[in-house]
Specification:
The complex is a heterotrimer.
Chain A lengths: L1 E5 H11 L4 E4 L6 H12 L7 E4 L3 H13 L4 E5 L1 H6 L1 H10 L4 E6 L13 H5 L6 E4 L3 H18 L3 E6 L7 E5 L3 H7 L16 E2 L8 H30 L7 E4 L6 E5 L3 H14 L4 E6 L1 E3 L3 H8 L4 E6 L10 H8 L6 E6 L9 H12 L6 E3 L4 H13 L6 H9 L8
Parallel strand pairs in A: 2-3, 2-4, 4-5, 5-7, 6-7, 11-12, 11-14, 14-15, 15-16
Antiparallel strand pairs in A: 1-8, 6-13, 10-12
Chain B lengths: L13 H4 L31 H16 L4 E5 L3 H6 L10 E4 L5 H14 L6 E7 H6 L2 H10 L4 E6 L40 H7 L4 E6 L3 H12 L5 E6 L3 H4 L6 H11 L5 E4 L2 E5 L8 H5 L15 H18 L8
Helix pairs in contact in B: 2-8, 4-6
Chain C lengths: L1 E8 L4 H14 L3 E6 L9 E9 L14 E4 L19 E5 L10 H6 L5 E4 L1 H9 L5 H12 L4 H11 L2 H27 L1
Parallel strand pairs in C: 1-4, 4-5, 5-6
Antiparallel strand pairs in C: 1-3, 2-3
Helix pairs in contact in C: 1-4, 1-5, 3-4, 3-6, 4-6, 5-6
Classes of the chains: A alpha/beta, B alpha/beta, C alpha/beta.
Chain lengths: 417, 333, 193
C-alpha cells in the first residue's frame, strides 16, 4: 500500500511485517523513531508475539539479541555511530557465532568531534566484522532491503546490517509502498535455526577455539559471504517476483552503457548524483553511475564488469580512512586491479555536510578532465584548515581543534545546507 | 544404661545428612539421577572452589526446573576450564558470549523462551566476580531493573583469576594480587569502601538475593532451589576460594570458605524484595587472623614486617557485618 | 519540480508543516519529499525545513538552495537569517505577521520580485483562535495553498485529518479554512491595487 510517511516509520512497518520475535534497542539519534514505532506496535498488541526490551546500552542490545537469536528467536535491533562502536565486541561475537541478527544502522558520523549527522563511517568501521552490509538508496529500498535481509541472514546463518543514511533517509517524508503481510509471509518463512539452545538437545555454543581450528572457522565465515554474493541477486529476483519491483541486488548502474566517466557511490547521494548525471548527459557528457548496494560481501567481479567499459571513475564516498584516503575507494581499486583504469577518490559529506548538485557538477567535470588529485575533499574550507595549521605552527598551546574551527567560521546558525 | 547424646554438629552435610535422611531430604548431589550438568574431565585446578560451587548450583537448578535449563556463561575461569578445545564438560544447553554481557545474553534467552511460550524453560547466567561486579555490572543492573526472569550466579573468588590474579572491585582490602602488590607503605589492595553487589542487588528490590559459600553446600543447594521457585530477577553470590589465587592449600578450600563465614567476613544471608529475610548464624566465632593466616595473599600482614593495624581494620569489617546482619545469636536483626 | 522552504523557530511546527505539505501533495497523487535541516533541536532556535513536489520520483537530496516558495513562520528571523538566499525571482512568499512587508523593512525585496506573489497572514492569531495554541504552521499551509494554487485546500484538510483527530483536527480545519479565505482575499486586493 502506498503511503507518504517518514523513512523510520516505513522501516519499522517493514520490520514488523517480518515477524520479529525479540526486539531490543537503546536509543540513539537518528534511529530513535524506528524503535519507538516498533515499541508502540508491540505495546498496542499490533505486533505479536514479540518481546520488546528496553536495554541499558547498545552493548546490552546486541548481547540480548545474541541470547535470543541463539535461543531460536528472530531478533532485531538498530543503532548508529557511537552506539555501534559501543557494541563492537558483541558485533564481532554475533558474527563469529553465526547468529542471523538483523540490525538497522542509521548511518551517522563517529566522534570526536561529536556529530549527529550522516556519513558512512559507522557502518564501514565494522566492514571486517563478518556482518553483511547492504546500503539503501531510498526509503523504499530501505523497506525492501530489511525484508530481504531477514531471509538472507537466516539462510546463511550470518548477521546483517541494513544501512540507511541518518536524517537524510530516516527523517525524510516520502512515498513508500509498504507490502502486505501475506506478501512478506510468502517471501520470508519462519526462522529455522542451524543451531539452537534447547534443553532437549543441549549444545555448548561459544567455546574457545585454538590455533588448531580458528583459521578454519574464520574461513567458513568468509565462505559464507562468498555464498552471499550468489544469494543476494537470487533473493532480489525473487523479491521482484513477489513484490513487483527491483530492489536490492549487489550493484545498480545508471546511464552506464557508453559512459566514459563513471561515478561510484553508495546510499542516498546516488539520487543527487543521478539528477546531476541527467543534466550532464543532456549536454552530451558521456557519464554514468555505479551504485553499490551490497558493500559486504563486496561484489568485486560485478564492480569490475561495471567499470570495464569506462576510461576513468571517481569513488564519491562519505567515509575517510584517516591518513590514507578512501575506504570504499580501496575496495573498488581492488576490484579493478590490473585494468589500467584511472581512479579518483572524492571524500564528501562527512559529518552531514550537504553534497550539492552544484558541487557535483564541478567535481564530475574535473574527473572527466582528469584534473584532480588522487584524493579530493569536496567543498573543503581550505582557508579554515590552513588557518588552523598555521595556528599550530605558531603556538604550542593551540587549543582544541574543533573549537578553533568553529570559532573561525563564526556563528553558523544562519547557514543551512 | 545411660546414653551419651551424640550431637551431629555437621548436620546437613554430605556425609551425615544423606544416609540418615529421608530420600526427599537428601541433597541433589546425593541423587543418582542428578544432571551432572558440568561433568568430569574439566580442567579446573585442584581444589577449585568455583568448580565445586558450579556443580552444586547448576545441578540444583536443573533439579528444580526438571532439566529445562539454559545457561549463559561469562568469560572467566569457569568458561575456560569447562570448555577446553575441542571438548565441553557441559551437559546442559550452554552459551558463552562475552566477558561483560552474560546478564544481557540471559535476558535475550529468557525473552526468546517467553515469546515462544516455553514457560517451562528457565535461564541461569553465571560469571566470576570480575565479570559480575566490574565489566558486567551495567548489564547486571539492567537485567535487575527490568526484573527479567533470570537467575544470576556470581562465583566470587575476589579477583580476576583466569588472567593471572588481578584485582577486581570484589577484592578484599589488603589482599595481594598482581595489580595490588604487597609492597610499599600500604601493601595489598586499598581499604576502599568496597562494592557490595548483594546489597546493590537488594537496592534493585528484586525478588530474591542470597549469598552462600561452598562450605555449606546443602545451604547452597537450598538457595538455588529457592531461587528457581521464584520468577523475575534473582541473584546469588557464592563465595568460592581459589587456592591458586589466594595461596591456600588445595585441600583447604571448604575450610577457608567456612572460616570466611565464621569470622563474619563473608555474611551469608537471604533477602527478598530488598529486605534481609534470613541469615546463617555464626556457629563459633573466630578471629579474623584464623581466616587470613592460611592465605599467602595476606602473608604480608604478619610476621616481622607485618601490619597488625591492617589486620585490626579487617577485623572491624567482620565485626560490622556481624552487627549489621545479626550473624551471632543475641545480635540484632 | 517545485521547491518550498519553510523558516521558523523550534516549537512552531516547521517540520510538521513540511510533512503535512508532502502528505497533501501525495493526496493529489504527486510525489513529494519533506525533510528538516537537522540542526540540534531546541525550542526557539532557528529551524529550516524543506519540501519538494514533483510529478515523478524525486531523487535530489540536497537542501533547497533555490526555493520557488518561502513560508516564513517567524518574522523575527527576517534580519537574523538570510531567508531569501537563492530565492527565485518569481517565487511565492507567505509571511506570518500582522504587519506589512514595508513595515518590516522588506519593501525593497518586494520591488525586486513579483509582489502579487507576496502575502502576509496573521497565522499565529488564527492558531490561537481556532486551536487555542499559537502555532502558525497549519494556517500558513492553507494560506500557501491559496497563494500558489499548488495544492487544494481539501488536500490540506486531508493532511490535517491524518495528523490530528477530534477537536484538534476540527480546530485546525477551521483555522486552515479561514487562512485560505484570507489569503485569497489578499490576492484579490493585489489585483485591484
Amino acid at each position: 500500500m502506498l503511503k507518504q510517511t517518514e523513512g523510520s516509520k516505513a522501516v519499522a512497518e517493514a520490520v514488523a511485517l517480518c515477524r520479529p520475535e525479540v526486539i531490543c534497542a537503546y536509543p540513539i539519534s537518528p534511529q530513535t523513531h524506528i524503535v519507538e514505532a516498533l515499541g508502540e506496535m508491540v505495546k498496542a498488541g499490533k505486533l505479536t508475539p514479540c518481546e520488546f526490551i528496553n536495554v541499558e546500552s547498545e552493548f546490552a542490545a546486541m548481547s540480548v539479541a545474541i541470547g535470543s537469536s541463539a535461543a531460536g528467536a528472530r531478533s532485531y535491533t538498530a543503532t548508529a555511530s557511537q552506539g555501534l562502536l559501543f557494541m563492537v565486541e558483541a558485533v564481532y561475537n554475533a558474527a563469529g557465532l553465526g547468529l542471523p541478527i538483523v540490525m538497522t544502522v542509521a548511518n551517522r558520523a563517529i566522534g570526536a568531534p561529536i556529530n549527529i549527522w550522516n556519513d558512512h563511517s559507522d557502518a564501514l568501521s565494522q566492514r571486517d566484522s563478518g556482518w553483511m552490509q547492504l546500503f539503501a538508496e531510498t526509503n523504499q529500498e530501505a523497506v525492501d532491503l530489511h525484508i530481504q535481509a531477514f531471509r538472507l541472514a537466516e539462510e546463511l546463518s550470518m548477521p546483517i546490517m541494513v544501512c540507511m543514511d541518518g536524517f537524510i533517509l530516516t527523517h525524510a517524508f516520502e512515498r513508500v509502498d509498504i507490502p502486505s503481510q501475506a506478501q512478506v509471509d510468502s517471501y520470508l518463512p519462519p526462522f529455522d535455526p542451524r543451531q539452537v539452545l534447547d534443553p532437549a538437545e543441549p549444545v555448548s555454543i561459544g567455546a574457545m577455539v585454538g590455533p588448531e581450528a580458528f583459521m578454519e572457522v574464520k574461513y567458513l565465515a568468509h565462505a559464507k559471504q562468498l555464498q552471499a554474493l550468489e544469494m543476494i541477486p537470487q533473493l532480489a529476483t525473487e523479491f521482484k517476483q513477489t513484490f513487483g519491483r527491483d530492489s536490492g541486488g549487489l550493484i545498480r548502474t545508471y546511464c552506464a552503457e557508453d559512459a566514459e566517466t563513471m561515478i561510484v557511490a553508495m546510499g542516498s547521494v546516488l539520487g543527487t548524483i543521478k539528477d546531476t548525471v541527467d543534466e550532464m548527459r543532456a549536454e552530451g557528457h558521456k557519464i554514468g553511475v555505479l551504485g553499490i548496494i551490497s558493500y559486504r560481501p563486496f561484489p568485486l567481479a560485478q564492480v569490475r564488469a561495471a567499470l570495464a567499459g569506462c576510461k576513468r571513475f571517481v569513488v564519491l564516498e562519505k567515509s575517510l580512512a584517516v591518513g590514507m584516503g578512501g575506504i570504499v575507494a580501496t575496495d573498488v581499486r581492488m576490484a579493478v586491479t590490473g585494468s589500467g583504469l584511472k581512479g579518483f577518490t572524492a571524500i564528501a559529506g562527512l559529518g552531514g555536510r550537504s553534497i550539492t548538485k552544484a558541487s557535483l557538477h564541478k567535481l564530475f567535470r574535473q574527473v572527466e578532465k582528469e584534473e584532480l588529485q588522487p584524493v579530493t575533499f569536496v567543498d573543503l574550507d581550505w582557508t579554515a584548515v590552513n588557518k588552523q595549521l598555521e595556528r599550530e605552527r605558531q603556538i604550542r598551546r593551540s587549543g582544541p581543534i574543533a573549537e578553533n574551527i568553529l570559532y573561525d567560521k563564526g556563528i553558523v546558525s544562519a547557514k543551512f545546507g | 544404661m545411660s546414653f551419651q547424646p551424640v550431637k551431629f554438629y555437621q548436620t546437613g552435610t554430605f556425609t551425615v545428612g544423606n544416609r540418615l535422611l529421608a530420600p526427599d531430604e537428601r541433597s541433589v548431589q546425593a541423587s543418582s539421577s542428578r544432571s551432572n550438568s558440568i561433568s568430569s574431565g574439566h580442567r579446573a585446578c585442584q581444589g577449585c572452589g568455583e568448580a565445586l560451587g558450579a556443580r552444586y548450583a547448576i545441578d540444583a537448578a536443573m533439579a528444580e526446573s526438571n532439566g529445562q535449563l539454559i545457561a549463559a556463561n561469562a568469560t572467566g575461569c569457569l568458561e575456560v576450564f569447562s570448555t577446553p578445545y575441542p571438548e565441553s564438560s557441559w551437559q546442559v544447553a550452554w552459551i558463552h558470549s562475552l566477558f561483560g554481557n552474560a546478564p544481557a545474553v540471559a535476558t535475550g534467552i529468557a525473552a526468546a523462551m517467553k515469546v515462544k511460550g516455553r514457560n517451562d524453560v528457565r535461564v541461569v547466567a553465571q560469571g566470576g566476580d570480575g565479570g559480575t561486579t566490574d565489566i558486567g555490572f551495567g548489564c547486571l543492573s539492567g537485567m535487575f531493573e527490568r526484573n527479567d526472569d533470570v537467575l544470576y550466579i556470581c562465583y566470587d573468588n575476589q579477583a580476576y583469576m583466569n588472567t593471572g590474579v588481578q584485582r577486581s572491585s570484589a577484592t578484599p582490602p589488603a589482599a595481594r594480587t598482581a595489580t595490588t602488590m604487597a609492597v610499599g607503605d600500604h601493601p595489598g589492595n586499598v581499604f576502599g569502601q568496597g562494592k557490595n553487589v548483594p546489597e546493590i542487588a537488594m537496592a534493585h528490590r528484586i525478588p530474591y538475593v542470597a549469598t552462600a559459600t561452598v562450605a555449606d553446600l546443602r545451604d547452597l543447594e537450598y538457595k538455588v532451589r529457592r531461587a528457581m521457585q521464584v520468577r523475575g530477577a534473582r541473584y546469588i553470590q557464592i563465595f568460592v576460594p581459589c587456592p591458586l589465587g589466594w595461596g591456600t592449600a588445595s585441600h583447604d578450600t571448604i575450610r577457608m570458605a567456612r572460616l570466611a563465614k565464621e569470622t563474619g567476613f563473608f555474611p551469608v544471608f537471604e533477602a527478598e524484595y530488598g529486605d534481609v529475610s534470613s541469615v546463617l548464624k555464626i556457629r563459633r566465632k573466630v578471629p579474623i587472623e584464623e581466616y587470613l593466616q592460611p592465605q599467602k595473599r595476606f602473608a604480608h600482614l604478619f610476621g616481622k614486617h607485618g601490619h597488625p593495624e591492617m589486620v585490626a581494620r579487617l577485623q572491624t569489617i567482620a565485626d560490622r557485618n556481624i552487627r549489621k546482619y545479626g550473624l551471632l545469636d543475641g545480635e540484632g536483626n | 519540480m517545485f521547491q518550498i522552504r519553510v523558516h521558523g523557530r523550534g516549537g512552531q511546527g516547521v517540520v510538521t508543516a513540511t510533512e503535512m505539505l508532502s502528505v497533501a501533495a501525495f493526496a493529489e497523487g504527486r510525489h513529494a519529499q519533506a525533510f528538516p535541516s537537522f540542526g540540534s533541536e531546541r525550542t526557539g532556535a532557528p529551524v529550516v525545513a524543506f519540501c519538494r513536489i514533483d510529478d515523478k520520483e524525486i531523487r535530489l537530496r540536497e537542501p533547497i538552495m533555490q526555493p520557488d516558495a518561502l513560508i516564513i513562520q517567524d518574522p523575527t528571523l527576517l534580519h537574523q537569517v538570510d531567508v531569501f538566499a537563492g530565492f527565485k525571482p518569481d517565487g511565492y512568499v507567505l509571511l506570518n505577521t500582522r504587519h506589512s512587508f514595508a513595515e518590516l523593512g522588506l519593501g525593497d525585496i518586494l520591488k525586486q520580485h513579483r509582489s502579487e506573489r507576496f502575502c502576509t497572514l496573521h497565522a499565529t492569531e488564527l492558531g490561537l483562535k481556532h486551536v487555542g495554541r499559537p502555532i502558525p504552521n497549519v494556517p500558513l499551509l492553507a494560506g500557501f495553498a491559496a497563494l500558489s494554487g499548488l495544492i487544494k485546500l481539501e488536500s490540506v484538510i486531508k493532511a490535517i485529518n491524518e495528523k490530528f483527530s477530534g477537536k484538534v483536527a476540527e480546530g485546525n480545519i477551521a483555522a486552515a479554512t479561514e487562512a485560505y479565505t484570507q489569503v485569497l482575499n489578499q490576492m484579490k486586493e493585489h489585483v485591484h491595487a
